[in-house]
Write a structure and sequence with these properties.
This protein is of the alpha/beta class. It is built from 16 helices and 25 strands. It has three domains: about 80 residues; about 270 residues, 4-Layer Sandwich (Purple Acid Phosphatase, chain A, domain 2), CATH 3.60.21; about 160 residues, Alpha-Beta Complex (5'-nucleotidase,  domain 2), CATH 3.90.780.10. Helices cover about 30% and strands about 25% of the residues. Helix 4 runs antiparallel to helix 10, helix 6 packs antiparallel against helix 10 and helix 8 packs across helix 9. The longest helix is centred in the C-terminal third of the chain and has 18 residues. The chain is elongated, with a radius of gyration of 34 Å.
Length: about 550
């Protein structure tokens, strides 16, 4: 068969330059023989010479190949360049690879955490539309560019625009901002498991927590996604989520029923092989844990090949490199963010470099699409919560004595008890000067807590008062009731608490296992008391506040 083919070839006249094997400037018999030998021995892809597509290279295919060479259906001049489609400089016109292929690709991660519903910019803080505008104008973000936008959790619960709608408005805005993933933080449970499920259904991005498991089986909760793989700039990025292990301890028990949070190291050792098996090349962790916890995880992250970890829960911005691992925290309230700029080699699946930094939301730019979403929810809120209930001349601070005393005293105005106590952490923002509305107090006391009544002796009260803020009594200069009477160690007192404090502090439930549920929302007495005063600019609420410390 070869002999007959050679006879055919010998009759041919000049062939194109790509078949000039001995590079003498001419295609002669020896070059044609070399071409045929190359085809027969497979130095060219056999399939490209299977002209009749019968799955084999036979005489007819070889004749057709020679005819193609003779008539110029193959390009005569070789084009040198990168022929690998996975390379950054792939040249689809190149016929010969010249070894110039590059595989270094860029990825930028924009990271926020503890957004807490700060959709609207107020007093130089927050603002989703402003933050998105800054990402576009300053950080060069484009919808189809090499970017990931990730949250470390606690998306909602804060200003009324988020709280009143149980996070729906916040997820709507984060969808418009093209978030790629969010960790499940402890505040994702503020509206119960059904509330979380509603937000999961609404979000265009996954909520991640590899350590959120069912208490009775140890299996991953159906509400959680352990990880997600995103392809960005031809890099398969595996994003693993971790939730703080104390999330079940600091949430209302009913809101985390049958939910537990496993230790981080064991979960990472289990999940990382799964992420790699599904094709991830670059590994990052988004978590709702604090800086010191992330730093403690660095040896494990290094061992597992995790390049970056982002945190949450603690509200400080941070950006540092530790033993080659990037650590970032974005601050809180959408007033700042962190950024990780990564160069990754896709040929060897290695990180060439990571640069981490933080920046403040300057409020200088505006994304119109996000602004339209915020405006819609602002209108909805104004329609429902704009009723004016009072007037304040000077702002009352979030952690001020006046704020503490106002809340606890208002409870005692509504319900006949001896003492009231609540926690500082439930008070989420200051009361600004000017008109006071329902919206104001939904933002200050955003949680769905109710007042319960328990009975404690004076000794039990003093033993458990801790750092709670109080009404109806003081600890300065001694333990005294509001009328100046000393608290008697053996006398039983009626004490008001939130059901959250009662449920999360076992001391109170042990001391009084049968509390009376008043069914009074903890916010309502404050609103009612302020409204009853009929305050105005001429007679502001300031005149009725107690500014003296009680603890």
């Amino acid at each position: 068969m070869k002999k007959s083919f050679i006879i055919i070839v010998l009759l041919m006249t000049p062939i194109l330059a790509q078949c000039d094997w001995n590079e003498d400037g001419d295609v002669d018999v020896l070059d044609i023989v070399s071409t045929v030998d190359c085809i027969m021995n497979g130095c060219w892809d056999g399939t490209q010479c299977d002209w009749n597509e019968d799955g084999a290279i036979d005489v007819l295919d070889i004749v057709s190949t020679v005819d193609c060479i003779m008539t110029g259906c193959w390009v005569g001049e070789d084009i040198y360049g990168c022929t690998d489609p996975d390379a950054t400089n792939f040249d689809p016109e190149a016929t010969i690879d010249d070894g110039s292929c590059g595989y270094d690709r860029e990825l930028t991660i924009l990271y926020t955490n503890d957004e807490h519903g700060w959709m609207v910019r107020e007093n130089g803080s927050g603002g989703g539309a402003e933050l998105m505008g800054q990402w576009r104008e300053v950080d060069g973000y484009t919808d189809d560019g090499p970017f990931l936008i990730i949250s470390g959790g606690d998306n909602w619960t804060g200003p009324a625009i988020s709280t009143w709608f149980q996070g729906e408005s916040m997820v709507d805005m984060m969808n418009a901002m093209h978030y790629d993933a969010s960790t499940i933080g402890n505040h994702e449970f503020d509206f119960g498991l059904d509330g979380l499920q509603s937000r999961l259904n609404q979000a265009d991005y996954p909520f991640l927590s590899a350590n959120m498991v069912l208490e009775d089986t140890g299996e991953l909760s159906p509400l959680a996604t352990a990880f997600v793989i995103k392809e960005v700039n031809n890099i398969n990025v595996g994003i693993i989520g971790l939730t703080t292990t104390v999330a079940d301890d600091i949430n209302f028990p009913d809101n985390v029923e049958n939910i537990d949070f496993s230790e981080y190291v064991g979960v990472l050792n289990e999940v990382v092989p799964q992420v790699l098996a599904q094709g991830a090349e670059l590994l990052v962790v988004t978590s709702h844990i604090c800086l010191n916890e992330m730093e403690a995880l660095v040896p494990v992250l290094n061992e597992l090949g995790i390049a970056l970890i982002g945190g949450g829960h603690c509200h400080q911005p941070a950006a540092e490199m530790m033993d080659g691992v990037g650590i970032i925290l974005g601050g809180s309230n959408m007033s700042s963010y962190a950024k990780a700029e990564i160069e990754f080699n896709t040929l060897y699946d290695v990180v060439n470099s990571i640069e981490v930094s933080t920046a403040y939301n300057q409020g200088l730019y505006m994304d119109e699409d996000v602004a339209a979403v915020v405006e819609y929810w602002q209108e909805q809120m104004d329609n429902e919560l704009s009723q004016v209930i009072g007037y304040l001349d000077e702002q009352v601070g979030q952690s001020s004595n006046a704020m503490f005393n106002l809340i606890t005293d208002a409870w005692l105005e509504t319900y006949p008890a001896d003492i009231s106590m609540t926690n500082r952490g439930g008070i989420r923002q200051p009361m600004p000067a000017g008109e006071i509305t329902f919206e104001t107090w939904v933002g200050i006391l955003p949680f769905e807590n109710f007042i319960v009544e328990i009975e404690l002796t004076g000794q039990e009260l003093i033993d458990n008062i801790g750092y709670l803020v109080v009404g109806g009594m003081t600890t300065i200069p001694d333990y005294l009731l509001a009328d100046g009477t000393p608290i008697d160690m053996d006398t039983t007192y009626s004490v008001l608490l939130t059901d959250y404090i009662y449920a999360t502090n076992s001391n109170f439930s042990d001391l009084d296992p049968t509390p009376y549920e008043t069914s009074i929302h903890w916010r309502q007495p404050v609103i009612d008391w302020i409204n009853s005063l009929n305050t105005t600019p001429e007679n502001p609420l300031d005149n009725y506040l107690d500014y003296e410390p009680r603890q």
